[in-house]
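idk why but the lab printer keeps eating my pages so im just putting this in chat instead. protein + PRP:
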Amino acid sequence: MQLTVVDHPIARARLSRMRDERTDNATFRAALRELTQMLVYEATRDLEVAEEPITTPVTDTIGFRLAAPPLIVPVLRAGLGMADTAHGMLPESQMGFVGLARNEVTFEPEPYMASLPESLVGRAVFVLDPMLATGGSLVNCCTLLTDRGATDITVLCALAAPEGLRRLEESGLPLRVFTASVDERLNENAYIVPGLGDAGDRQFGAV
Ligand SMILES: O=P(O)(O)OC[C@H]1O[C@H](OP(=O)(O)OP(=O)(O)O)[C@H](O)[C@@H]1O
Ligand SMILES: O=c1cc[nH]c(=O)[nH]1
Ligand SMILES: [Mg+2]
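predcted complex ->
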């Protein structure tokens, strides 16, 4: 599994705003959108481009377009806050949706929806979820994708815990992970420390 930590100064500043308990829901969402831009920018660096002839106001030349824009898959709820930004940067991409809620007693994810293309053979997939804690939710989501034939999955998250990264690594799933920080650890409630709290609640309110 390939891990990239996007620790650009602007990314660190946005992440700090998200961590701060005084940050209100609207400011948290704005900071997550801005952080998502940086994660997408880094994660798309190696995407294949196709050449196409174009004409500028001055002359004919060669232009470029993405050869195969990845499928974007936000994990509901918290990943929804990254979806529009990622789609804006990859406007030709298709979007799928996975809904998971972590059981806060067992810490296991409980799936409640999946809306994905039947086959993902030969398609790159970008999974969006700001939080990688125990890793249970992302293993569940990425297994749904590999069950459909995906072999090229990129996970974009704001924060990752070492425990979750280990679980993803041990899953053997074909993954690359881009995160703005690898935090210290999980606490007894499987929350990331120092973390930022519940990313869904911080954006949309407590359920
Ligand atoms: O790595 P894990 O231990 O599985 O935890 C991470 C998951 O927890 C959060 O979702 P949550 O279940 O709180 O749902 P929500 O987005 O609706 O708040 C987060 O967005 C991840 O999906
Ligand atoms: O710290 C955590 C752990 C799981 N889910 C969150 O939203 N935050
Ligand atoms: Mg939540």
